[in-house]
Amino acid sequence: MITCVVDYVIDPEKIADFERFAAEWMRLVRREGGVHHGYFLPAEGASDEARALFSFESLAAYERYRTLFGVDPEFVAADRIRDESGCVIRYRRTFMRPLLPDDQLPE
């Protein structure tokens, strides 16, 4: 399993737009066989940071998902929310592998 961690700097005045953007990406990750662990939005402290975590069974599965960017109409529409609203200022993507308790390992 590979987990993608996306750290965002967002416009705190555009949280509603970011939430629409996030809802679409959670749906699309699930549609393509990934597991979305959610978006984490500001509650206290820095109000311009957000994070997303989602997993695919392998890096190859993630790369198949990435081939749809800029091609699949629903992916294009989801990105359009970000681009047209300006809710995301910048983001950084990191790949991690989870270390889980034995009773939580994928089968």
From TrEMBL:
Signal peptide (from-to): none
InterPro entries: Dimeric_a/b-barrel, NIPSNAP
Residue stretches making up the NIPSNAP domain: 7-98
Recorded superkingdom: Bacteria
Protein name: NIPSNAP family protein
Organism: Amycolatopsis albidoflavus
